[in-house]
Amino acid sequence: MLNNLLLSIPFMTESRVDLVISAFWPMVEAAVLVSIPLAVSSFIIGMIIAVAVALVRVTPVNGVIHRLFLVIVKVYISIIRGTPMLVQISVVFYGLPALGIFIDPIPAAIIGFSLNIGAYASETVRAAISSVPKGQWEAGYTIGMSYMQTFRRIIAPQAFRVAVPPLSNTFIGLFKDTSLASVVTVTEMFRVAQQMANMSYDFLPIYIEAGLIYWCFCWVLFVIQAKVEKRMERYVAR
């Protein structure tokens, strides 16, 4: 039945149908075992960087060391936002060996993705923190809380609710961007698609299939995102 359905597509032939079917599970397996873990680990590390960078930027300037950190994070954000992610990953994997630093493909990809997410997500986190009324900070100080206690107990929960939708979109975008890891020889889903296409010299059906698989995974993430946002709305309403 599946064969007949695929054969009904104008450009499909029996050989292409066999190719698409044989490539399906290897690509799905690579997505589950490599692409998703790569996206999750990079996102977690990136968020740690983003929160740290955002705190440096929203904290009132105090002293030379803080000013130095402020300059460093601004330069970091400017470099990451001003260069393609492909270049960033390539520098980590292919460029650092020139300095005697050798990093395996998966850690190199994680470093590249994390640095990229850290820069972009820091702007989202900073905006979310800034959206909390200043009176909330003053309320924390009034009851004797320190800056970090006020941030952790009062500001962060409110900022988190604001940041959830854009950060969810950032994660979905990161999952799609894991295809760039193929450049540094990580055998994620798109690299498997490339390998299957190279063996058959028939690229169109494989790449279309890869695109559909990415779309299916992203659709699941969209559904999860919608449910998380609804729960956050209910929580805020209470």
TrEMBL record:
GO biological process, one term: amino acid transport
GO molecular function, one term: transmembrane transporter activity
Regions crossing the membrane: 30-56, 68-96, 204-224
Subcellular location field: Cell inner membrane; Cell membrane
Keyword Transport listed: yes
Keywords: Amino-acid transport, Cell membrane, Membrane, Transmembrane, Transmembrane helix, Transport
Membrane topology: Multi-pass membrane protein
Pfam short name (any one): BPD_transp_1
Gene Ontology, cellular component aspect: ATP-binding cassette (ABC) transporter complex
ABC transmembrane type-1 domain mapped to chain residues: 32-225
InterPro entries in UniProt: AA_ABC_transptr_permease_3TM, ArtM/GltK/GlnP/TcyL/YhdX-like, MetI-like, MetI-like_sf
Similarity field: Belongs to the binding-protein-dependent transport system permease family. HisMQ subfamily.
Protein known as: ArtM protein
Species name: Mannheimia succiniciproducens (strain KCTC 0769BP / MBEL55E)
Gene designation per UniProt: artM
